[in-house]
Sequence to fold (582 residues):
Amino acid sequence: MLRVEGLTCRYGKVAAVSELTLEVRQGELVALIGANGAGKTTTLKAISGLVAPVAGRLMFSGRDITGASARHILRLGIAHCPEGRRVFPYMTVLENLQMGSHLRRDRRQVAADMAGLLDRFPILRERRAQTAGTLSGGEQQLLAIARALMSRPKLVMFDEPSLGLAPTIVDRVFDVIKTIQAAGVTVIMVEQNAFAALELSDRAYVIEQGRLTLTGTGRDLLENPRVKAAYLGA
Amino acid sequence: MRRLAILALLALLLSVPLWVGNFYVLHVLIVTGIFTIAAMSLNLLLGYTGQLSLGHAVFFGIGAYVSALVSLGFAVHLAPDWLVTLDPQPVWLAMLCAVAIAGLCGWAIGRVSFKVRGAYFVIVTISFAEVARLVALNWDELTQGPMALNNIPPLAVSLPGLDEFDFIGKVPNYYLVLVAAILAYVVIARLVHSRAGRAMIALKENEPLASSVGIEVTRYLVLAAVVSAAIAGAAGALYAHYIQIVDPNVFMFLYTVTMVIMVVAGGKGTLAGPIVGGLIFGLLPEVLRSFAIRPEVQWVAYGVLMILIVYLLPNGIVPAVASLWNRAGRADAPAAPTTGSSPGRIVP
Fold:
C-alpha cells in the first residue's frame, strides 16, 4: 500500500533520515521505534508531505507521491496525527473535528461521520462545546485521533500517541488504535514506548540515526536481544 | 436580545448628527471612524491569523495616495521620454482604484513577507512602510513630496434623476464613514465565519497542525493580507477625500502603532474589539483635552491607561466584558473560553 524507497531528508546539512526503505501493506499496523532524534517523526512528515525529501521515492496505492503537497496526500487518504500540541486549543471540540474534514465537500457524509465518532467517543460528545485546551491530555489525544479519522483516511499515522499521558489512558489510546486497524484502516505508529508498540503492531522497523537497522514482526523484535538491550531495558 | 442591542447601537450611531450640533465633535468622530476601519482591517491579520504587521499604515497611505492621484490626475515620467498621464477621474472611481491597488499591494507584500514569521515578519512589514514613506517623500513629480497633494476633491455622487450630491461638510461625511465602517464590519465578519476564516484561526492556533489537516498556510495568510490591505486602503481613501490633503506622513509608524493599540486594547481576534478600542483611543485625546489638561499630562494619561489595560485585561476589553457577562449569566456553566494567542491552558 505504501512504499518508501531510499528516503533521505535533511535539515540544512544534517541528515535526519538516510536512505530509508520500508513498506506498509494494506490493513497492517506498523510501528517505527527508535531513540529520540532517530528520524521517526521526519519519516512521517516526509510521507505526509510536510517535509520535502532530498532523495528517494514515496509510492502510495501505486501512485508516486514524492514531493506532493500535504493537502494532495491527505486527499489521497493519508492522515497524520502529529506529536506535541495535538489540538487547536481555543477551538471547541466540534470545531476541532470539523478541521479534520477541511478538505471534504460531502457535507452530509461529514455530519454523519462526526455523529459516528461522537458515538464512539462519548467523552467528546459530552465536551463538544468546550474548548479543546480545557480537555485533559488523554481527552485531547482522543480528539486528535477522532480528528484524523474525520478525513476518512485509508492510512493513519500516529506520532507518539502515548507521549505525556497517564498509564491507564495510554492503554485506552492503544485500544482505540487497535480498533481503527480492525475497522480496516492501515496504521503507522511512531512510539517511544517500544514494548507497547511491539506488542500492538504486526510488524515494526527500528530506526537508528536516520537509518533502518532492524525489521520484523512485533513478536520477533520483542525477543531480539539487541532490541531488548536498547529499547526494552531488559 | 443581541439583535435588539445591535439595532439600538445602530440607531444611536445613525442619530448622532441629530443631537451633536458641534462640528468639531463630528470631525473627531469622523476621523475616529476612519481609523477604526483601519484598525478593523489590521485585526483581520493580527487577531485572526496572528501575524503582527507593523507596516499596516502602508496600505492606508497607498489608499490615500492612489485615491488622491486618480481624482486629481497626474503626469509622471516613468522613463526620461516616457510620460504617463491621467486626467482627473470621478472620486468614486478613484476610491475603487485605491481599494484595488491597496489589495494588490497586500498580495505582493504578503507573498514576500509570509516567507518568514515572528520578529522577521514584523521587521519586513516595518521596512515596507518606511520604503513607501521615502518614495512618497522623494518622488515629487508624482506625489509633490513634502509639498503634499492639495485640493483633493470630495466624494460626489450623481444618481439618475437627482442632482449631484457632494460629500462636503461634517454630516454627509459622518454618514459616509459610518456606512463604510458597517460595510467593512460585514465583510470581515463574513470572512471570519467562512471556511477560509476557520482555516485562518486554525493556523494562528497551531500552524504545524493546520498544515497537517490540509490547510495551505501561505494561501490563507495572503488572502487575509489582501482583504485587510483593501479595507485599509478604503480607509485611506476616505481620509484623503475628507481631509483633502495627503502628505508622506500618512505612512508614519505612529499611525500603525495607533491601529495596533486600538486592536490590542479592544480585543484582538474579536469582531467588536477594534471598534471598542478605536472609539476609546480615538476619542480619548479629545476627552482629556476637554478637561483642559496640559498636553504632556494628556499623553501620560494615555500611556497609563494603555498599560493598565494590558496588565489587567491582557486579552483586551471585549473578551473581558464577554467573560464577565457569561459568568453573570450562567454561573454554573463551565468557564467561558477566551480567544487569544496564549497557549492553551490544560486542565487535568
